[in-house]
Amino acid sequence: MYEKIPRTFFQQPTLKVAASLVGKLLVIQGDMEKIVGKIVEVEAYKGPDDRAAHTYGGRRTTRNEAMFGEAGHAYVYIIYGIHHCINCVTVGPDYPEGVLLRAVEPLEGLETMAQNRFQQPYESLTNQQRLQLTNGPGKLSQAFGITKHAYNGHDLQSDTLFIADSDRHTHPVLTSPRIGIDSSGEAKHYPWRFYEKNQIYVSKAPKPNDE
DNA sequence: TCTTAGATGCTCT
DNA sequence: GAGCATCTAAGAT
What we know:
Layout: H1 7-10, H2 14-21, E1 25-29, E2 34-45, E3 74-79, E4 83-91, E5 96-108, H3 110-118, H4 127-131, H5 137-144, H6 148-151, E6 161-164, E7 173-176, E8 193-196
Antiparallel strand pairs: 1-2, 1-6, 2-5, 2-8, 3-4, 4-5, 7-8
Helix pairs in contact: 3-5
The protein binds a DNA duplex (13 and 13 nucleotides) through β3, β4 and α5.
């Protein structure tokens, strides 16, 4: 039904993987239900060379251990104590780069997402809430039920969590500086955020790549 | 519609 | 003990 993306896809340069991931599908196959979303926004983190990355300078800790694994695995961590974020490990092994999934467009499993996010049936959500199901790293993780405990180091070639190809129409992909890393010095200027043009599910209103 | 502050807990120093 | 790749609610405009 869904074509899993081969591991070789993730072994390409990180910036290329990031740009190509926009428009792909994030699929979770739970016990009861499948959850699918189209990736509309990502950020590239180029490990050793990137001050904003957890693996800057080759820093290796228990938290970012998954980043040092083979390409095509998931790196899930908790941020601000509450929110989970999910990355796809690229290049590797032993080269800690990755792509952060920032936003998706909900396609399947809307009921499950609505329950996970708002403890309400999708039917009774306001339009605002529907837009906010998955338009941010913490939100999409909550909607998909992604937790560090369950998915950190998870193989994206598995049947329960993977990235799939899509023939859906996609808008042009734009770039901009990344978000939420103001304390990372010069690295914050790098245009390593990729998002789909005119996509209402992107986490922040599209901003020209001007800086 | 935009801006601000508080929540919350894991990870690293 | 401080900081964090965020989100939400509340208050200002």
